């Protein structure tokens, strides 16, 4: 069977075909079922035999899955046929209605729908005959779906023959039904196909509600296909960025209008800030460009702090320290984040302050590193002389605030939908294709799960790289960059350094540490031409510095 | 890896996440103190200069000019008018804010005093007749458990006034917040610092300073221990009767173990140092028992207090602001409902209520070009006391556009129509002049219209007071709070509202002495304000004073009056009670007539007439505000604005932007109905995925059709089959790598927005997190 599938594959374009699982509409299935319920009463008694009932019992558990798969398939083909029809659920209904009327040759859709019906018959037949899994069945179908209508018709005939062969080996009366429907050619309606299935589903082994509960409680495996992204050519983050930079913006004019409308509100927002409200912006699209533009205007009067909350290694304590030293003018401050926040709050509440007021702009106040600091932010926001402007993007973001925090924040919400791509906000994310890259966040995650010794092993290499790159800067600062090479450390030297610090006792343990890092792509190694091994962390010096700081 | 990432702009960097911009005047000073790290210095300086450059580019107009106010009416509004709006806002809000905070304080005060009395009375020795004074045999900590309601946002005000009052009674107050008391050492530190500041230890000064928040004086190297407290207390020799009051404002926020330990320690010292603990609870009293152990609860001498008074507070606020119109701006029915719902259905938070009110007033003066008219009506003086209404001349001449805007208001047109109808030719001349002559409109017509408004407000307030007087005679269960009465008053006609019907039934049930009482009450309400202007009601043909007078005479002497007027003839006193029931309404409302022989027929008749009078008075007083000229201006209507600003739906906004983009982008290309498909109707047009849509929008719509698990590759295939069709309207179809990059971006954005998350359960799969549209 699977051999057949492979025979067909080369004829088809792969990318269009393997979309089985995209259109999973439960309603379509349900609707199908409903039809069955009605027709069932008329037809079952005349046709059903005891042996079929046995087979059907066996297949009952997997049947639902099968049904869904084939309806999906019908749907995914519909996509190809009627080029702009993507409302899957509705398409199915429509297709069914039309199938009755339309003549075979004229309606591609009709044919597609028919296939779905037949496909179901075949899938069932197989299972009845005890042939392995439903997954293989659906996959085969997947591989052999058709990019255009004409070829589809041609292919349909092949399929029919196969179907008959298959069905013959396990099926009795029910098989007739399937064959009948196929013989009817393109004119047969989906409703008939469904009816056919109805006997499958219910037969005469009990009332329909049993099936309902069976569906409800059967834990089915994954319904999705086994395709992986490895089928696509690899694309590095850098390539991605350069490609995306060239992609033209859709709806350029409309978005410009939208932006100009937003910009008109700047004065109003200023008025709201002056009245003691803090602003939070929501809506789809990157809001940092607009908010930064607002912030630069605000900064002509008062000091303005811009915090990029989406930054994966944001150190909020450091941010507060910088505010204290650069805006307030307090040097050498210590204490927890809460202490620092209340210190700033206290300064802006006091009457003897020099700086009258301050604006704090937080992009993505729901960012991962800020989530645990909301209380401190609320303390800052509650001061009359500190105005907070924030943006949120996560759809569940408001859940991070409890009611007393909300009161402190004193938000006025504004819809700032821009449709700008989140280029900057997601630039730290690994796009998931080029597996040799690992972002700073990934490194932190890996480190968090390691022992103290292992962390120090990492630290040695990181510090070495930072020192090297600073020396490089000093030495060759003005000269041309030597391919902007990341400094590497010879393996032996690295081992010696670790051993000297009592981090590892033998080369074996060192190896195992290194393997761990290598598995997580934190550390990469390279063999030079003379055979010596060099290791390095694929990150630049400043990022490493931030990571080291946040490790403390 | 080499970082090839190019920053988007000056505020974007792979290494820094905080940028500080300083005002231009301080720029030069800033340049001197360069940041510390050498490696960063160069880029930082470069960035700073480019920041300055960016700033100049953007400074096409100064958004902070005029405090953010901009000329309205397409910029045709004169500057004086705009300035006036700005000034009026401050003039109106400052006293109103004062009024609101005073009200809140006054309402809270009662409960606060109770707690204070408890604190002062704690640890007093029991007086016995035989042996003089006797100390309590148990070492229990006096504890006040204060239930302050779910409106946690208001608690800081409440506890602030508690703190103030305790200070006045010369107690030492320690305010502990859960966020600073995560562990016992933290808690003791925070407490002792505040006590030290209060006792004047370490600060040198003897006066009690108030240490706010979590940062007190701070002693380095001292172990914070309660024994320290005892030493201080002995040394400081505080005044007699002082207590140390430790307030745990948000008891639920504290770790139960921390409080537990604290109580055990404090119990050891409470014989020497009078510590009183106050727990502030937002949920219920049971919370204390649930979180503390039995052993520690047994060390407490607990008394309960209920300080939740936000409903009373809100009623008082609504009376003074809306019913007695402390603010010129009132709320229309819909906006008022939104305001009230936020309060009643959400959190009982006064802060939230005040916030919305403030925003509405801000919006009124910011966006309503006719808000300058409120300068002609003044109500509050600077201290927030209600003064009498007065109509003044407008300080500025209105511009052409504003005058036209006034003429265009529906209510003004109705005002003119009525004039014509009532005064005939004079009215017609008046109207013509008002429509043509701008000065006439401003100088004579406007004051007249505003006088209507003012007069309406007064009679409305009178009406509500009368309704309350009637309510007081009714059983408790039928009482409605003022906030609801006001809502009925502005949203329902008197003849239609069910509550109004209950009221009518109540007065129809009254007997002579009750009616006399009610009428006396009405009289005192009428006479309580001397400068009552009832012109508005009178124009509608109801003379409240004379009606009341007649009613009183009737009730006082029913036989005489009715006879004089020719009633009651042919009817004898001997009528059987059963015959008195003449109508069905009587049966419903006055079944007592069947059994009641004490009232005479004349009396009943008189009562009936009285009820009619009272109803017509109420009907006139509570007439809908929509009849008042210029109500469009003075009754706030933008409930939608309030809802979106304070009850925003960020998730719905994102889903709308992605699923129904045309709501934001009104474009032709994504409208499905213009494309192929003859049998697809409009509602289905929404469902169709067009290649012209935004990439993420396409990905979003595709993902909506999936189950819980989404195969990335299949998602990609579906995405590419849509995007490929761009060739129908673009010069060339996108390449495979472009599609791939765009898909990755779209899926990454979906992840960023929280629609999907990655999973380990199957290779290259993501889990869908949201359902529904």
TrEMBL record, chain A:
Residue span of region Disordered: 89-191
Instruction: Return the Basic residues bias intervals.
Output: 117-127
MF annotations from Gene Ontology: DNA replication origin binding
Report the domain of life of the source organism: Eukaryota
UniProt entry keywords in alphabetical sequence:
DNA replication, Nucleus
Q: Provide the primary localization.
A: nucleus
Bias (Acidic residues): 154-169
Q: What Pfam families does the record point to?
A: RecA-like_ORC2 (PF04084), WHD_ORC2 (PF24882)
GO CC terms: nuclear origin of replication recognition complex
UniProt entry tagged with the keyword Nucleus: yes
Cite the Origin recognition complex subunit 2 RecA-like domain residue spans from the record: 256-416
Q: Which residues form the Origin recognition complex subunit 2 winged-helix domain?
A: 483-541
One biological process term from GO is: DNA replication
Localization (cell) = Nucleus
Where along the chain is composition biased (Low complexity)? 102-111
Query: Hey, which family's this protein in?
Result: Belongs to the ORC2 family.
Give the record's subunit note: Component of the origin recognition complex (ORC).
Protein function:
Component of the origin recognition complex (ORC) that binds origins of replication. DNA-binding is ATP-dependent. ORC is required to assemble the pre-replication complex necessary to initiate DNA replication.
**PANTHER family xrefs:** ORIGIN RECOGNITION COMPLEX SUBUNIT 2 (PTHR14052)
Name the record gives this protein: Origin recognition complex subunit 2
Cite the source lineage: Eukaryota, Fungi, Fungi incertae sedis, Zoopagomycota, Kickxellomycotina
Q: Gene name?
A: ORC2
TrEMBL record, chain B:
Where the protein is mainly located, per its record? Answer: nucleus
* Annotated Basic and acidic residues bias: 54-63
Which InterPro entries does the record cross-reference, listed alphabetically? ORC3 (IPR020795), ORC3_ins (IPR045663), ORC3_N (IPR045667), ORC_WH_C (IPR040855)
Q: What spans are recorded as compositionally biased (Low complexity)?
A: 24-34, 42-53
A Gene Ontology BP annotation from the UniProt entry: DNA replication initiation
What are the Origin recognition complex subunit 3 winged helix C-terminal domain coordinates in residue numbering?
Answer: 651-771
Q: Which GO terms describe its cellular component?
A: DNA replication preinitiation complex; nuclear origin of replication recognition complex; nuclear pre-replicative complex
Instruction: Report the residue ranges that make up the Origin recognition complex subunit 3 N-terminal domain in this protein.
Output: 11-373
Presence of keyword Acetylation: no
Tell me the keywords, alphabetical order. DNA replication, DNA-binding, Nucleus, Phosphoprotein
Q: What is its quaternary makeup?
A: Component of ORC, a complex composed of at least 6 subunits: ORC1, ORC2, ORC3, ORC4, ORC5 and ORC6. ORC is regulated in a cell-cycle dependent manner. It is sequentially assembled at the exit from anaphase of mitosis and disassembled as cells enter S phase.
Q: Family, per the entry?
A: Belongs to the ORC3 family.
Stated name of the protein? Origin recognition complex subunit 3
Natural source organism = Coemansia interrupta
Q: What gene does the UniProt entry assign to this protein?
A: ORC3
